[in-house]
Design goal:
Blueprint lengths: L3 H12 L9 H12 L5 H11 L6 H25 L3 E2 L2 E2 L1 H5 L1 H19 L7 H25 L7 H26 L4 H28 L2 H4 L5 H4 L5 H9 L2 H11 L6 H11 L2 H22 L4 H15 L4
Helix pairs in contact: 1-3, 2-6, 3-4, 3-8, 4-6, 4-7, 4-8, 7-8, 8-9, 9-15, 13-14, 15-16
Length: 321
């Protein structure tokens, strides 16, 4: 089985093709612009890895990978709109550059193109793949809505937050692996263990993402520093802080949530460190990481074939961007 970096090169070569027609340019150019910003392409490559874990890499895995990556980018365009985000990957977001109405339409047609790629796979796989893709797409939308709902609540329980990020982020990671496994002819048991591996890895990935939004280097992360803090988003960091901070720290945190001082990000980060939230976050990430590896170990293939997935898991959770 090939390493992530090698499969990424193979996928990138194919994905660089033109996905959209030239006209109307006002509709399709924003999508070309957004795709040109790059991205880690983790999810489509996980589909390739899920296929190759069980069988020789098939062209269908590339078609599904294209569908997954376009769906993911569609969700990011709309996510940026809902978050009113000025930057994505260090560049101007689509709605800021081209306008809100165009960004909505461009995202919609990117989703349509994702289904076009999905329709190209062999008929014998299509019902199972389409069911999983649709289920996952709906769950991602549910997770995004919960994320919005949480912004209007004064308190959110940690288990509710974990449920939200499971839907919003980790189910697509899990489904990417499982769709590849389906193409690779994996048994149902192996498919499910690989799905759970991706699910837990996706949760750990999101914990790391929230951590980097708060504590990461903006020049590496490519997003506005402390964007979640400025939006009062109910991330696991804030939820934990509201649970454990007492006395003056709790009072100051609540005051900052109700106001918008110039140095709000710096003040909130100081409270996070004082209340031990930073260390707790790393411990929680490690718990999900270890759970993910247990499911990967349970997949019934030779251990050496799983090594590239283990290496990738370590890489994702040690990243600085």
């Amino acid at each position: 089985m090939q390493r992530f970096e090698d499969l990424l090169k193979l996928f990138q070569t194919r994905f660089q093709q033109a996905h959209f027609p030239e006209t109307p340019a006002t509709l399709y150019e924003p999508n070309n612009y957004f795709l040109s910003l790059g991205g880690k392409r983790i999810r489509p490559v996980l589909c390739l890895m899920g296929n190759e874990l069980f069988e020789t890499l098939h062209d269908d895995a590339y078609a599904v990978g294209n569908a997954i990556e376009l769906f993911h980018n569609f969700s990011l365009i709309h996510d940026d709109i809902m978050d009113n985000a000025p930057l994505r990957r260090g560049k101007t977001t689509v709605h800021e550059k081209y306008g809100l109405s165009t960004a909505i339409l461009s995202g919609d047609v990117m989703l349509v193109k994702a289904y076009d790629y999905l329709s190209k796979v062999q008929v014998r796989y299509l019902p199972q793949l389409l069911h999983l893709f649709n289920k996952t797409a709906a769950e991602v939308c549910e997770g995004q809505q919960l994320d919005i709902d949480f912004q209007h609540l004064s308190k959110v329980a940690l288990e509710d937050y974990i449920h939200m990020i499971t839907l919003k982020t980790s189910v697509l990671v899990a489904a990417s692996l499982k769709m590849g496994a389906i193409i690779g002819g994996a048994s149902e048991g192996n498919q499910n263990h690989l799905y759970q591996f991706g699910r837990d890895l996706g949760i750990a990935f999101q914990i790391q993402d929230d951590y980097l939004d708060a504590f990461g280097d903006p020049s590496k992360v490519g997003k506005q520093a402390g964007g979640d803090i400025l939006e009062n988003k109910k991330t696991f960091l804030l939820i934990r802080a509201l649970e454990v901070c007492k006395g003056e720290a709790a009072e100051e945190l609540n005051r900052l949530l109700e106001s918008n001082p110039v140095d709000k990000v710096q003040q909130v980060l100081k409270i996070y460190e004082t209340c031990g939230v930073k260390e707790w976050a790393n411990q929680l990430k490690q718990q999900y990481f270890e759970s993910a590896l247990l499911h990967l170990d349970a997949v019934a293939v030779v251990g050496t074939r799983k090594q590239p997935l283990k290496e990738l898991a370590h890489l994702l959770l040690q990243r600085e961007y």
